[in-house]
Every structure is written in C-alpha cells, then in structure tokens.
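Internal tracking record. Fields below are filled automatically when a chain is submitted to the structure queue. Please do not edit lines marked as system-generated. If the sequence contains nonstandard residues, flag them in the REMARKS field before resubmitting.
Queue: standard
Priority: normal
Entity type: single polypeptide chain
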Amino acid sequence: MNASPSHQPHPAEWTETQSLLPSAERDLPAGRHQFHKEQMMAQIHEDLRTSPVAPPKRPNPFLRRMILVPAAALALAGAVVGGLALTGGDANGDKTTLGTGPALTTQVGVADAKGAPRLLDRISLAAADTSTPTPRKGQYVYIASKVASTYPRTVGDRTTVVSDELHPRQVWNSLDGKDGWLIEAGQTSDKGITLSSDVPLSGAYNALAELPTDPEALLHRIYRESDARRDPEVPRDQAAFVAIGDLLTESYPPAAVSAALYKAAAKIPGVVAVDDAVDATGRHGIAIARQNDTDGERTEWIFDRKTLQFLGERTVVVKAVAGSPFKVGTVTFTSAITQRAFVDADKQVPGQAS
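SYSTEM-GENERATED OUTPUT FOLLOWS
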C-alpha cells in the first residue's frame, strides 16, 4: 500500500481484522436482511419461554448467510403465505396502492452513479441539521415499522415465490443493547418476546454514540468489521454498504453519527442514486443503493424527496440470476419506519405514562 499521504487506498484494500462493531452472521432466506436482519441486533439470543414462536420452515437451496444479522431473525423466519404487490401510485409523493398478488413487485428505478455523491452530501447535511433527542439513563429505543418480504417456498418438488402480508413491527432496545422486546404480527404472539444478550448490540445507542464522526475513520471500521463477519460470497463493498444500512435502520443514531454514515457510504464504490423508490407503506422517494451482482439484488435506502428524511429500506431484484426463482422487479424485502422515540420502559409506546 502506498504510504504517501496523497494516496487514499480503495476501501477494499483495508485488511485489519480486529472486531470493533459486535455482530453475528447466520443463514437467512434471500432478501430477508434489512429489518429482519434483525437489523443490528447482533448476537441477540431470544428468550422464547413466554412465546410459542414456530421454528424456521423455509429450508431451500436459496438460503444464504448475511452479515451483521442477529439470531432473532432465524426464530422469526416462519413461512407465511399470501402477499401483495406495489403497484400504481405516482412519483409525486402519493401513497401507492397495495394490491394482492403472489409476490411483492415494483418498477425498477433508474440508477445514477454520478448523482450519488451529491445526493449523499445533501442527505448528510439534512441529517446533521436534524434535532435528535438525547436519551436518559435507563431508557429504551423504540422503533415502529411496517415490513414484508418475499421468498421461495417449496412444497414437494414444486418451488413458488410467495410474500408475507405487510405487517406492523415494534421493537424496544435498551441503550446498552443487552435487552429489549419485540412484537411482530404473525411472527410473535400479541404480547411479544424478550430479546436479551450478554454482548451489546452493534446498533445499540451507546455503541453508536461512540463511533467516530470522521467519515474516513468510520468507513475504515465498517470494512474491518464486515471483513471479519461477511460470507465470502458477499462482495466486500456490498457487505460494507449493508452494514451501514443496518446502522441506519432499526436504531436511533445521534445526528452527527447519521451524517457521518452517509458521508462514509459515499466513499464505497458502486453506490448509486435511484430516481424513484417506494417504501413498504407506498411512500415514493429517492434512494441511495448498491447492487450485489452475485444475487442480482439491489439494496435501496429510501428518503423523502423534499426533507431527505430516511423513510425505509427495500431490496429489489434488478438482474436475472441463473438458478434464482426471483424475476426482475421482485421486492425481496421492504420496510417503512413509522416512528422512532426514546421511552422509559420496554413495551411502552411514546406518549404512554411509565
């Protein structure tokens, strides 16, 4: 590596392996990383004594390992039938009609590599200018969202593509990332399940607050950690992009950290801007994305066109891949954040007394 200070190494040249962002890797059905990663709940072990959650029922040849994915997702990956499609709507912000269909589908937006750095700079400035609350000791991060995913389902010798119904999800995480609570329609009981771990979450508020806000140093850490955890089949740049997405979604980063994460993402090769993308609730926006050529899927972070507020995330099939059951335009995962807040206890919702 050139030692000259004028030489900035490609991120993929970074090879350090010391772990700084605790995380875990595990098998998930294709496309079920974003919120069902369970986005930053690294090394969480669920206490299922109070909830009869069904074991996974999706053994199929398309299983793959993702990076920075907690164990919670595995227990929640039971097969569900039914689905919906993203159809209609307009590009001016009106909600898209959610129709019924065998799989989530959408129009693939146009990618623009040249526009990504400029858009990420605007998003970073908007994030830095956002007033985010400072939590008190003992509080929990509360995230409410709506999610759905598409996956192959095999019955006998026949494989078909099916989708979850769009459903609500609520998660509470302690500031230190060692305990929490999850309620997800169709995946847990109505009362939910306990989330607990001896190892703090990589996306816990306390961990996020300690991250460097220098984009170069931050991206250096992201690559170092994803190198230690990623599946060899996942390209290094893609793993780093997904890792940043994990730190932006089911968490509540301080404004300065969010701004730095967006600036760091701008340094990853292959990142593009997308002219139109739709979140799980049908809100149109613009997106920052990166395509994984291995599986033909593009991970998209969706933002409001005017405010540049983060709306949600989705994964879209943009290239046909031999052996894959997914057609171009299939949405393998979609999410929309509906509320973020700090609350005084798990299972408490914003506005509710302690």
